[in-house]
Amino acid sequence: MEIPEGLLYTKEHEWIKIEGNLGTIGITDYAQNALGDITFVELPKVGDEVKQFKPFASVESVKAASDIYAPMSGKVVKLNEKLSTSPELINNSPYGDGWIAVIEISDEKEKENLMTAEEYKKYVEELSE
Amino acid sequence: MDLKSTPLLEEHKKLKAKIGEFAGWLMPIQYSGIIDEYYWTRKNCSVFDTCHMGEFIVHGDLKESNLDRVVTHDLENMEINRCSYGFILNEKGGIIDDLLIYKLQKDKWMLVVNAGTCEKDEKHLRKYINGLENISENTAKFDLQGPLSREVLKDILKDESDKLEKLKYYHFDYFSLFGENVIISRTGYTGELGYELYLSKKNVEKLWKLLLSDERVKPAGLGARDILRLEMGYPLYGNDINEDTTPLEAGFEKFVNLKKDFIGKSALLKQKKEGIKKMLVCLKSNSRRAPRHNYKIYLDGKEIGYVTSGTFSPILSCGIGMGYIEKDYFEIGKKVLIKDGKIEIEAVIVEKPFYKEGSLMK
Questions:
Q1: How far is B50 from chain A (nearest CA, A)?
Q2: What DSSP character marks residue B94?
Q3: What is the mean pLDDT of residues B290-294?
Q4: Which of residues 93-122 of A touch B (CB under 8 A)?
Q5: Which residues lie closer than 8 Å to B23 by C-beta, 6 or more apart?
Q6: Domains in chain B, ordered, with CATH?
Q7: Which of A60, A88, A91 lies nearest to residue B290, judging by beta carbons?
Q8: Would you say residue A83 has pLDDT above 80?
Q9: What is the pLDDT of residue A129?
Q10: Which residue in chain B is spatially nearest to A42 when comparing CA positions?
Q11: Cβ neighbours of B87 (radius 10 Å)
Q12: End-to-end Cα separation, chain B, in angstroms
């Protein structure tokens, strides 16, 4: 399972890549694998305010519908529109073409509530036990 | 509760299947991926482990054994080597189970029932039937489904390939494999050309491996099976039909022989006279969002029913489902709203099946 360095992770299996005051958000390899084939993504709107650890998007797989939680608070500035017709991008490339949204981070200190790659790896290993 | 496992559980694990609970059994949900397996079945040929299903043998005359009275099938007019689909009903006409019946000999029948209902079926059947034998423990079953399934089986059966070639829809025959008589019927749950194979447990691994040694064949799990059956509008017991729904409400009157006497008949006749209140309909959503079990169905703001099964249809690229609505609101083409919490799905009532291009009758 892939857990890239440099990203920050949530307990609900989202990741955020921080570049300046922008954060790109997606779900982890673990999450996409657990969900199975993703068939639908409900995206927020550009301009929506999202709150850390609150639902901001949802995905459906063949098996179930699940909420996606925002790793940090902020304003949505960009969406991966390709997901509306090709939600399988999340399965194929959870950290790349399967990104979900970019937010303008409102409070950088919220980083402290997230896990590093190493911490997330340990967390996932404990879950699988 | 202890979960049961089929004789192939270790084989599934070797194939890195995701294993999940279904009807009290540990079953392969998926191997390579549900949608992958789905397409492979529609285009090529998949093998499904269906050992979890239950099989009973009934010996004796149709009337004397009471079999004819506990099922809705038209057994009296059935020929040997034929299969028939129908129901076991309670006194209220509610569905205890849906099942296939095979006429093995003049006075010998095989009943094939759902895994989750096998125990309750046996209890119910034993109340009426003399000479019921539960052979589930030693019977293994596979479904081989897909447009290439006939060619695959012919290659395995060699000398008997002509016999397989001639096997018609809802017929079965015996084929010699590993020194035993394997029952193969041309039946299935996918809408594709396909077969169900019954053999003894001791040869199950050999046949599984033999089938998978053919590169046209891949294993498929319950995830793909659910999409395949739903695209055909086939009901899943426990979801779309149960003891509180009758075959009339579910739209399956053609699988009920009203010319004979059977448990639940008077309730059905009464319902027929008074008219059904609810009916099972097919729903097609206008987005990729899938209706799901227990979502509510609305028409002009009024709740008129509930979803019993739903999924994403890969071939139609949209959500599909089945559900019960109040009969008075039924109309093909009618637009409804399916809701659950903040989820809202616009959908249309359509005719079944959703998928019409299957190789079923090929």
A1: 20
A2: -
A3: 96
A4: none
A5: B52, B114, B115, B116, B238
A6: 7-51+137-231 (3.30.1360.120), 277-350 (2.40.30.110)
A7: A60
A8: yes
A9: 73
A10: B289
A11: 25
A12: 43
Sequential DSSP letters for B150-211: HHHHHHHHGGGHHHHHTPPTTBEEEEEETTEEEEEES--SSSSSEEEEEEEGGGHHHHHHHH
| Whether the predicted pLDDT of B1 surpasses 70 | no
Task: For chain B, say whether A36 makes contact (Cβ under 8 Å).
Answer: yes
Peptide bond just before B353 cis, omega within 30 deg: yes
Interface check A39 vs B, CB under 8 A = yes
Average pLDDT over residues B203-222: 97
% of chain B surpassing 70 pLDDT: 100
**Dihedral sign, Cα of residue B315, residue A92, residue A42, residue B338:** positive
The pTM of this model reads 0.94
**Contact residues on chain A for B30, CB-CB shorter than 8 A:** 36
Q: Given CB atoms, is B154 within the 8 Å cutoff of chain A?
A: no
One-letter identity of residue B144: L
Q: What is the mean pLDDT of chain B?
A: 97
| Residue B286 near residue B335 (C-beta atoms within 8 A) | no
What are the pLDDT digits (tens) for B47-91? 999 999 999 999 999 889 999 999 999 999 999 999 999 999 999
- DSSP assignment, residue A100? -
Asked if residue B272 has pLDDT above 90, the reply is yes
Shortest distance between the Cα of B319 and any Cα of chain A, in A, equals 9
| Nearest residue in A to B224, CA atom | A62
Window 308-327 of B, Cβ < 8 Å to A: 311-312, 314, 319
Res A103 pLDDT > 80? yes
Chain A partners within 8 Å of B17 (Cβ): none
Residue showing tokens 């921080």: A18
The edge-to-edge listing of strands for the beta sheet with A74-79 is: A8-9, A14-19, A22-27, A101-105, A74-79, A49-50
DSSP summary character for residue B329: G
CA distance B60 to B54: 20
